[in-house]
Design goal:
single chain; about 270 residues; alpha+beta; 8-stranded antiparallel barrel; two-stranded antiparallel sheet
Length: about 270
């Protein structure tokens, strides 16, 4: 083989080697994507005070795609439906309570019901907060004949046998997780409205109710907890074991709210 031929073959061999190495050594791309997870009962005694506890921060999940991509939105941002209670009582007018619906805790019927109520174009027939017990709970009623109710208790948490779970006060079985600060549930162990309550008590009180309540939402932000504090500051009057929101003259005066749908996710 001539020197010219050997030079051409060598050039081709080097070119193929470089191209092959360059192809197989393409680095993968590491992209972080945050994923948020959503982690009383009207007839139970008041718990101790715990004004400072807030919901635990959401964990971060690392995703490693094989090709460059647009940052993936969090799972909660894709699936969560958020409803908003806007208070209309002059004493707290304009303040809001935002609730992220949690079908993973209650099943889809209760959360779908609340989303349908929030999507109505006019005021609800029933939308009031009437009971407030500081650092414990606010209870209300919500409903409208345009959206029929349907009894649907939440599921018993994984690992528990419903027949072995005793109720704390309502003889209503195992309907959901142990109540924790910020959770929103149907009252009285029922699987439907109109009565619901927002819990801000301590873990001891939540443990006392065992698994009585169908939990269909969680408070969505710190501003909602601040609104709860405003409600706790309103005058109240005793009514049996409960305390009802009152006016300055001592008459029971529920706080009315407007309900709206501010974020509609793929999961309800």
């Amino acid at each position: 083989m001539s020197s010219t031929s050997r030079l051409c073959v060598g050039f081709v061999a080097v070119w193929v080697t470089v191209a092959t190495v360059g192809y197989w050594q393409t680095p993968s791309i590491d992209t972080d994507a945050a994923a948020e997870s959503s982690n009383g009962g009207p007839n139970a005694p008041q718990p101790g005070r715990d004004a400072n506890r807030r919901m635990r921060p959401a964990p971060v999940v690392r995703a490693v795609p094989t090709t460059p991509t647009t940052p993936t939105p969090s799972v909660a941002a894709v699936t969560a439906t958020v409803i908003e209670l806007t208070l209309t009582d002059p004493r707290v007018s304009g303040h809001q309570i935002r609730i992220k619906l949690a079908p993973e805790l209650s099943g889809p019927i209760s959360t779908g019901y609340m989303a349908d109520l929030a999507a109505l174009s006019s005021l609800l027939e029933t939308a009031t907060l009437f009971r407030a017990e500081p650092d414990n709970l606010v209870q209300g009623r919500v409903g409208d004949p345009r959206v029929p109710t349907k009894e649907s208790r939440g599921p018993c948490p994984p690992g528990l046998v419903e027949a072995n779970v005793k109720s704390s006060y309502c003889n209503c079985g195992c309907n959901g997780p142990t109540m924790r600060k910020g959770m929103v549930a149907w009252a009285g162990g029922h699987g439907q409205g109109p009565d619901f309550f927002i819990f801000t008590g301590d873990d001891g009180q939540g443990d006392a109710w065992i698994h009585d309540h169908t939990v269909w939402g969680v408070l969505a932000d710190n501003a909602s907890f601040a609104t709860m504090d405003l409600l706790y500051g309103l005058p109240t009057i005793p009514s049996g074991p409960a305390t009802m929101i009152a006016d300055d003259k001592g008459a029971a005066t529920p706080v009315r709210f407007n309900l709206s749908l501010i974020a509609k996710g793929s999961g309800r």
